[in-house]
Amino acid sequence: MATANNTAKSTDAVKQITYLAAALKAPRITEAAARLADQARDAGWTHEDYLAAVLEREVSARNASGAQLRIRAAGFGAVKTLEDFDFDAQPAIRQQAGALASGGFLTEARNVVLLGPPGTGKTHVATALGVAAARHGHRVLFATATDWVTRLTDAHRAGRLPQELAKLRRYGLIIVDEVGYLPFEQDAANLFFQLVSSRYEHASLVLTSNLPFSGWGGVFGDQAVAAAMIDRIVHHADVLTLKGASYRLRGRGIDSLPSIRTTTDQTET
Ligand code: ADP
Ligand code: MG
Questions:
Q1: Is pTM, for the whole model, over 0.90?
Q2: For the residues of 121-183, what is the DSSP string, one character each?
């Protein structure tokens, strides 16, 4: 009789959990509560252990779907991760990239600059750091330098540049791919400078460039603007230099062309 009574109570409780979990918009609680209840009884968990285990399932599922949403919203050309990256092709950055993937640079509003010739994996690593940031709960936006300038120019013309910069500061990470691919007009360079200034010591930037810093004066049309910008970017930054031949051309016999041969020639074996 007592057993029948307990079963009835627990059925009521299960129904109530289903209702309450739906009200909390936490559907996984219903499933976890039922499944973990048996486990808890068998293993003699305390009430606290059980509650913690149930909530943990909901939170980790939320984090995973939150990360997926942030990755989709970031605007990556293609989603790439550090697990997909062949560090044997870039052994010099293995440790630095691994440390950055833990996301510590974001909480300190530090920047990352990836320099190197075409095809060496700059966009791949920048994207991978963005994916890692999204997984750590940061909002991320990825675009090329040209796209950023277009976006800032549009905001400026509409008289809402300050609002746009304030909005962008709410993103923990902004990735600027291909700095130096095209030179900027004076106005564009100034807008880009404002983006860099507005994030300085507030939120992180990851930038990639085919050019060494010494070539940035030509991109921004003005040595003084470039110098002031580089100063703010690298004040708190990790600079990763990728080397060698294009990964795209590996194994195609093209990396031995004189125009592509580099000092650290990576001949395929
Ligand atoms: P970059 O931006 O320096 O021009 P990308 O990051 O676009 O180069 O790399 C070119 C292509 O080669 C991409 O598809 C990228 O995923 C791949 N790639 C480059 N380096 C590596 C690597 N070390 N391991 C795996 N894939 C790589
Ligand atoms: Mg690239």
A1: no
A2: SHHHHHHHHHHHHHHTT--EEEEEHHHHHHHHHHHHHTT-HHHHHHHHHTSSEEEEEEETSSP
